[in-house]
């Protein structure tokens, strides 16, 4: 057996990879994190933490380091109002909470390093080789010098375009995006706040950040994803906003722009031998209501202790297999709900009868509780052999 450089190599230093690194170090495993970006991103794509994630953070003493998060108001299901506290009114973190992804990532990064994780930035993973007792990640460093890291296990936490998933040959079934949303943080504009406001031509959302900038998000009914090599240009976003709302935001200053769609994919297995997936590397979904970030963080919280125990043992391989069993079923359920929400959100006038029917069903407390528990991460585990789609 080749000499091991570390116990686990984690690819991706976003919130999921960094929480996993913290969990591994807490369990005594050596961990090296490889990250393509030279410095943390300033983009805060997600800002919502749900009850189960808050519970996990509280157990780990992270809430004090985060701020703690503030209450985020009511939630929604496909744009229809839904009080998430109905999931479990007695839960200490009932409802939803606000913490910018940049802050979550910074806190987790500081803790991972403090616990002894090695975080290497500016590293591009180019190869992955599995053996019976180890896995080797080949990469190119900041100075373009090739190197390799040999570990007991490797985990891809490197997002929806995961290099680890591709190199390790994971099956990734699902459907590509058929609808596109545009999103931008804009300074210097004064427009009304909007919460899933449906207009004849599209969907408009606007909210003011504490720094005075405004986040806008929009979808023109019937619009399909464009082939893009980067984020959308601000004139495209401003023109679409005018067509939907009649307002001119073209005089504002764009601080951040991106486009995303309703692609829906999930890895057939979250583990292939000594390589595992977590977060968006394992499942891609419309980032509605902050569920993408929360799903990924909950993946990491489940996988970390199991993988650390395996490195210390080793224990029965069934322990690692249970990660797939637990998190794949949770992800499958969440993705089914997200798919339903995407249809309610992004459909045009043709979905109004469906929206009216779902709204009528949501007048019943058991329906609201069921939906709120799934979104909040408090739904009971799915029994083996059951179907939730």
From TrEMBL:
InterPro entries: FAD-bd, FAD/NAD-bd_sf, RIFMO-like. This is NAD-binding protein. Residues 5-335 form the FAD-binding domain. GO terms for molecular function: FAD binding; oxidoreductase activity, acting on paired donors, with incorporation or reduction of molecular oxygen, NAD(P)H as one donor, and incorporation of one atom of oxygen. It holds the Pfam family FAD_binding_3. It comes from Streptomyces boncukensis. Its cofactor is FAD. Keywords: FAD, Flavoprotein.
